[in-house]
Specification:
Cupin_2; RmlC_Cupin_sf; Jelly Rolls; about 120 residues; about 50% strand; 9 strands; RmlC-like_jellyroll
Length: about 120
């Protein structure tokens, strides 16, 4: 991967892909991956699509690049729109696109303690 990426261009590309997928979503890791502690994933969702309830794999934020989304737990919800940064709670949560949206999910995975 190069040292520079246009998130706006990548978001447009992923939204185009999401519009052709049955799931209504598309994703691309833009930095890091399974071998890194930090991972950033660009996720595009068409209106009404979402990510079902799941656990938080570590510290995480959602940066809304385009559109409007809702991040929810059983007891709270946060709406975000372009430019907003939502801190992902430690609780199980879900994400729904209120309109065609692109987000940058940043996760710092928890490390396992070293064996003693």
């Amino acid at each position: 991967m190069s040292n520079k990426l246009s998130l706006e261009a990548a978001a447009r590309e992923q939204l185009q892909r999401a519009s052709t997928e049955d799931s209504g979503r598309s994703a691309r890791t833009v930095y890091g991956g399974h071998e890194h502690l930090l991972r950033q994933t660009l996720i595009a969702l068409v209106a009404g699509a979402g990510l079902g309830e799941h656990a938080n794999p570590g510290e995480a934020t959602v940066h809304v690049l385009q559109g409007r989304v809702r991040l929810s737990t059983d007891s709270s919800s946060w709406d975000g729109r372009r430019g907003d940064l939502i801190v992902v709670p430690d609780d199980r949560h879900r994400l729904e696109a209120l309109e065609d949206s692109a987000i940058l999910l940043t996760v710092a995975k928890q490390t396992r303690p070293a064996p003693s």
